[in-house]
Amino acid sequence: MSSAFTKYIFVSNLFSTFFMTGLIFLIQIVHYPLFDLVSEERFLKYHSEHSRLITFIVLPMMLTELMSSIFLIPDNPYLNRTMAILLLALCVGIWVSTAFVQVPYHNLLAGGKSSNLISKLTNSNWIRTLLWSLRSGILIWILMDRLDL
After folding, report:
1. Nearest-CA neighbor of 113 among 125, 103, 105?
2. CB within 8 A of 129, min separation 6: which ones?
3. How many helices (H) and strands (E) does the chain have?
4. Phi and psi, residue 76, nearest 5°
5. Would you say the pTM of this structure is higher than 0.85?
6. Alpha-carbon distance 96 to 114, whole Å?
C-alpha cells in the first residue's frame, strides 16, 4: 500500500469513528429517550421517518469505518497490526450489536410504540456507545503518540 493511500485510510478511519462517536452520544442521550414523548398516534410515522433518515447518515459512515479498519490491518506507519486488529474487532462488535440487538428492537418498534422496547433499545445502545468510545480513545492515543503530544 502506498503511504499516501495509507494516510487517507487512516484519516478516513479517524473521521468516521469520531463522527460516529459524537452521533451515538446524541442518539443515546437525546434522541432515543425522546421516543417516549412521541404520542402513540404519531409514533409509527415518527419511527419510520427516523429509521429512513438516519440510515442516510449512519450507513455511509459505518461502511467507511469498517472498510478503513480492514485496510489498516496490513503493516502501515500509523499503528501496529495488534492495534489495527483491536480497532477492527471493536468495529465488528458495533456491527454485530447493530444487526442483532438494535435493529431487531427497531423492527419491533416499527409495529407500534412500546415504552418497554424503547427502554430496551436505549439500554442496549450503551454497547455501541461504549465500543465507539473505546475506538475513539484508542485512535486519540495513537494520534497523540504519532504527533508526540
Report:
1. 105
2. 24, 25, 28
3. 6, 0
4. -150, 160
5. yes
6. 24
In contact, 39 and 115? CB cutoff 8 Å: no
Closest by Cα among 34, 57, 29 to 47: 34
pLDDT for the residue 86: 98
Q: Which domain holds residue 135?
A: 3-146
Counting the structural domains of the chain, the total is 1
- Nearest Cα neighbor of 63 from 37, 89, 95, 32 is 95
At 35-67, the pLDDT tens digits run 999 999 999 999 999 999 999 999 999 999 999
For 136, other C-beta atoms within 10 Å of its C-beta total: 19
Cα–Cα dist 9/2, whole Å? 11
Q: Compute φ and ψ for 130, nearest 5 degrees.
A: -65, -45
